[in-house]
Amino acid sequence: MVERIEEIEAEAKAAVEAAGSAAELEDARVKYLGRKAELTGILRGIADLPPEQRGPVGSTGNKVRKGLEAMIEAKVEGLKNAELEKSLAEDRIDVTLPGSPARAVGHLHPITRTRRLIEDVMIGLGYQVMEGPEVEHDYYNFTALNHPEGHPARMLQDTFYVEDDQHEEEVLLRTHTSPMQVRAMEASPPPLFMIVPGKTYRRDSDATHSPMFHQVEGLAVGEKITLADLKGTLLAMLREIFGPDREIRMRPHFFPFTEPSVEFDVSCFRCGGSGSLEDGSRCGLCKGIGWIELGGAGMVDPNVFGFVADTGYDPDHVTGFAFGFGIERIAMLQHNVGDLRLFFDNDVRMLEQFS
Amino acid sequence: MRVPYGWMADYCDPGLEPRDLAEQMAMTGTEVERVVTLGPESADGFVIGKAVSVEKHPDADRLNVCQVDVGEGEVRTIVCGAPNVAAGQTVVVALPGAVMPGGMKIKQAKLRGVESNGMICSERELELGEDHDGILVLGDGPAPGTPAAELLPLAEPVLDLEVTPNRTDCFGIYGVAREAHAISGAELAPAPWDGGPIGPGLSSEAGDVERLDDPVGEESTADRIRIIVQDEDLCPRFTARGYTDVKVGPSPLWLKARLIAAGMRPISNVVDITNYVMWLTGQPMHAYDLDLVPEGELVVRRAESGEKVAALDGNEYELSDQMVAVADRNGLAGIGGMMGGSVSEVSETTTTVLMEAANWNGPNLLKTSRDLGLRSEASSRFEKQLHPALTLRAQAVAARLMIEICGATPMTGLVDVAAPAPASEPIRLRAGRVERILGLAIETDRQAEALEMLGFGVERDGEDLVVTVPPDRHYDVTREIDLVEEVGRISDLDRNLPATLPSGAGRPGGLSRQQSLQRRAEDSLRESGFDEMVGWSFTDPAEVERLRLDAADPRSHPVKLANPLSEDQSVMRTILLGSVLGAAQRNLSRGADRVALFESGRVYLPAGEFGPGPLGGDFPGNTRPPSNEPQHLCAVAVGSIDPSSWRGEAGVSDFFALKGVLEHLAGGLGTAVTVERLADGPVQPFLHPGKSGSVLVEGQAIGWIGEVHPLVAAEYDLDGAVAFEIALADLLAASPVGEEAYVDFTPFPPVDRDLAVLVAEEVSAATVVAAVEGSGGELLTGVSVFDVYSGEGVGEGEKSLALRLRFRAPDRTLSDEEIDPLVSGIVESLAGIGGKLRG
Predict the structure, then answer these.
(1) How far is CA A333 from the centre of its chain?
(2) Measured CA distances, A43 to A1, A32, A177 (Å)
(3) CA B320, CA B302: separation in Å to the nearest integer?
(4) CA-to-CA distance for B499 and B480, rounded, in angstroms?
(5) B101, B488, B633, B801: least CB-packed within 10 angstroms?
(6) Residue spans of alpha helices (H) in A125-217
(7) Distances in Å between the alpha carbon of A296 and those of A178, A205, A231?
């Protein structure tokens, strides 16, 4: 009997192996493991066998049966996979057609990008970012910045005034971001390290002047702040923006709210500060000077501290520096934009060049 | 301020190329806008000639054939087209080889058959002046053949200085010379009012001005003129000196040449002297024909309102009672510090002159200048506030010139009406203060030296310096810090100053939470396919009408500019939509087939609630800003946001497309918005009344969304557009980003139940969802609308909403027995809003 079982096993294995389709495999399963199969019959008749045969027949039979079942199952899996592979291979697409376009990502305005870059650089140097009002009181834009009424420095900035009968002093559009120096110092005692990006306004309009433009103000006040610290701070910032080889130049100047005052330049990044290009021609970016004018700065004038004495700004104990420059100017230099007005034209053919 | 190099060199010749001096001046605080060479690049070939004879050209009516002596022994034949050429004239000849301004080289040439050996030049051809009516005719004297450059500023380098308003001293040549002295160390001559040179060829004897005040029985100024200053506050000092025997005529060539190089027109010797003195000392002057001052009296007073004055520029000005005038017995004779009057103008027949050097109130004059729209060389100096003492300097220099040039006899005594001079205290520069401010140590001796070269008086007191300030720096240098600046700017800061960073650790830099969320919001719109734009803050007042805002709407009452550049930029915007629609219009008209634009910017409202935070218009500082400036976020889409491809055309982006963008924006901030119709009427007058809603976050309205009203779209030449605008700070305030608290999630699976509910057409999805949420109990964790249907099988005026309800318990798997009664409760609640289950 055991031999017969082993014969059946060999026969069945051969049949399973030979099966080339799910149907043939099912036939083999019915033939060798089905209800009417010989092996099934043998196992069902075990009880009728002599006792000494029951054990060997039962264990061999069951083992063979389990083995065949596993074999069939594996074969089913294999056949399925083969059929799947076959059908997948037939399901062809033209992979050379264009892909479905994703929704195109939009673009941040170049002024926003440059503003964020400057913010991030200054944050790294320990500065907070603050915002202030654009429609402002004369007091903050001029008086508290040491431009008393009738001071000729007020003439330096062509100011937009606002029709207003609610306030004693004139109301205007801020001509610089500097009013926030005073507001910030009113709001918090020293030490203070902050920058103010934002819109500013002057009554002027041509390729290099826009009646609306953006500035960044910087203010650092503490116990031991010097003009040399201003130089180091501006140098660090300019190197982050324009590259590690840049140098800074400070020229004495006059602003009513800083003393001493300077204007600052960065060495030209196109000609490396030499003023001429490799072919010997004059550098067009710096106009052969080697330096690019960027902004104004200086040590906070003690008179300005006088307006915020209540919050602890005593010029005998604290000193500070302030600086300001145009965001558009930086963006124009970064991206070779020739006309300031392009920034406010908002032509998507311009905007979409800045990803 | 134009500074002819040669004039400055009378007092200090730094021995530098003009360009190098310009560079050094820029590095010490005085920007040089440019260095121009006046006239031809080189003076070679320009000589003085004398016209010996002048005859008509035989073959040309307009040409003359001149025989000109240019000092060569033989005369030269020169053909000249000028109508005024005549025999005997002293002229400037450009010989062959000379190069004219602009590059034309003079050659021998035949003109209509006559050989011409040079050119007789006009003022304009030499760039000495405007006159081109004829050739420049010089006064007799210079010998033929004399290089013209000895008489005229040919090829004269002129530095055009951008003098900062604090440096009134540099509005005078002598002040600039002192700057050059401090920069270069080159010697500085005494001041022209202090015995120094006054002009080429003038005897220094004429400088003995003090002699003028010896009473020698001659006529005295005080006998001839009475000066009454009624308003000392506006005219702190008025000095005057009379001159008799004045011979009015043209100025000598050197004086004319210097004025031309400085950018002024020579007029007559007396007037030229006033201008020359102003340019040299920084103190303006005015000359009166004293015989035309009735009864010898001048009164300085505030004008009466509406009082008129005929000024020297030929215009009549109407003054206000805030302005100061000089009046004679008959009326106004000048605008104080601004411009003289024509009534007592010096003319060819003048023989008696009164020279005024006065001091005026700067702020008042600045205002007068602004109000009259008039600015003169004099007022541009006075408005910066000059020191009263400068008047005496000017009078001293003028006296020397009047004697020498006009042959005048000065009257004795100066009439000097002066308020008390401004107090002047020495300033102490403490040891170590320079280093404390600059971060660079400069030896005390070096500090003292720098200050002395700049004209300050310096005394040592231990390690401190005690400094006295000269009058022409009186208003600029008033404090220790100003001395620090003076020392610093002369100490080659650019080379010597180290670059350090502020000391003191522990400063946290960073963006505020609001600022970083703002970036996130803007980035979200960028990711959704929108391009950011920056619109003008000012707009056209008619925008209000284009957007159909009525007078009751606060947005119809913008902040107005008092002095706009143009009408269409005359008010501050109260809404961003107009800017963004305008940009969309421009782009489409330029060929774009679709646009998706957004702006993150402020609107300006006359009043209203502030806050929260700076983005809500709540800024730091003691005084509230005059207007309310909340940051808004506005997005507009025209056409499709989504791309088309070979697989299909993307449809026009509609309300729901844009609402998806808004929901994505809110979702990115960890919050959610709802859109509702809060009232029966239109949501906004500029939106489609049926396809628009208010945007709410946590129940608070923060803006609107909708299709732009077709009539408004048409105003911007748009076929249609969808838009939203929200108050950014309000949205960000609802964001939990960074403040989220973790809640345990349940491992037990949810159970979903779908319901199809029939409701009346006008019942909103939000109402249905709210009814479900209100009755579902704690186990109901979500409701979503996944289909909306109306049409066949649904009654007229009804719609069917397919809802998916999700139930979940934190501690167990829910059974049907638990959920069924909940669903029944929900159905009951839906019945309350007229809803019934669909079959």
Answers:
(1) 21
(2) 11, 12, 98
(3) 8
(4) 24
(5) B101
(6) 138-141, 179-187
(7) 11, 21, 12
Inter-chain contact B29–A251, Cβ cutoff 8 Å?
Answer: yes
Report yes or no: A275 and A269 within 8 Å, Cβ to Cβ.
no
Q: What's the total number of domains in chain A?
A: 2
The count of other CB atoms within 10 Å of the CB of residue B111 is 16
Q: What is the pLDDT of residues A305-324, one digit of tens each?
A: 999 999 999 999 999 999 99
Distance of CA A62 to the CA centre of its chain: 67
DSSP B346: -
Quick one: A61 and A204 in the same domain? no
Q: Which residue has the tokens 């004369």?
A: A138
Torsion of CA A284, A287, A290, A295, to 10 degrees: -110
Q: Are residues B367 and B449 in the same domain?
A: no
Res. B214 pLDDT band, cuts 50 70 90 = low
In this prediction, residue B647 has a pLDDT band, given cuts at 50, 70 and 90, of confident
Q: Give a yes or no: residue B742 inside a domain.
A: no
Instruction: Name the residue among A212, A233, A259 with its Cβ closest to that of B501.
Output: A233
Phi, psi (degrees; rounded to nearest 5) at B324: -105, 140
Q: Please answer yes or no on whether A152 and B519 come within 8 Å at the CB atom.
A: no
pLDDT digits (tens, 9 = 90+) for B152-161: 878 889 999 9
**B572: Cα within 13 Å, side-chain hemisphere:** 28
CATH no. for residue B124?
2.40.50.140
Q: Return the amino acid letter for B99.
A: V
Tell me whether residue A127 is in a domain: yes
Q: Touching check for A201 and chain B: CB below 8 Å?
A: yes
Nearest by Cα to B547 from B724, B708, B721: B708
Residue B553 tokens read as: 């709407």
User: Is residue A98 in a domain?
Assistant: no
Interface test with A, best of B532, B636, B665 (most A CBs within 10 A): B532
B412 shares a domain with B394 = yes
Task: Give the pLDDT band (50/70/90) at residue B78.
Answer: very high
Cα angle: B224, vertex B272, B454; to 5 degrees: 100
Of A20-29, B197-206, B407-416, B806-815, give the lowest mean pLDDT range: B197-206
Q: Give the pLDDT of residue B206.
A: 46
Burial class (CB in 10 A: 0-12, 13-18, 19+), A317: exposed
A252 touches chain B (CB under 8 A): yes
What is the pLDDT at residue B136?
87
CB contact under 8 A, A134 and B537: yes
- Asked if residue B226 and residue B171 are part of one domain, the reply reads no
In this prediction, residues B156-169 reach a mean pLDDT of 92
What value does the mean pLDDT of chain B take?
A: 91
Cα–Cα separations (whole angstroms), residue B457 to B167, B176, B450: 18, 18, 11
Residues A176 and A69 in one domain: no
Alpha-carbon distance of B154 to B517, in angstroms, equals 66
Summarize pLDDT for B399-425 with one digit per residue, the tens: 999 999 999 999 988 999 998 888 889
HSE-up of A311 (CA within 13 Å, CB side)? 19
Q: Are B707 and B694 in contact (CB under 8 A)?
A: no
In this structure, the dihedral spanned by the alpha carbons of residues B57, B63, B64 and B69, taken in order and rounded to 10 degrees, is -120
Q: How far apart are the first and last CA of chain A?
A: 82
| A193 and A160 both lie in a single domain | yes
Is A332 within the bounds of a domain? yes
B358 within 8 A of B235, measured Cβ to Cβ: yes
Give B 443-462 residues with CB within 8 A of chain A. Answer: none
Residues of the domain holding B79: 46-154
Q: What residues 25-54 of chain B have any CB closer than 8 A to a CB of chain A? A: 26-29, 31
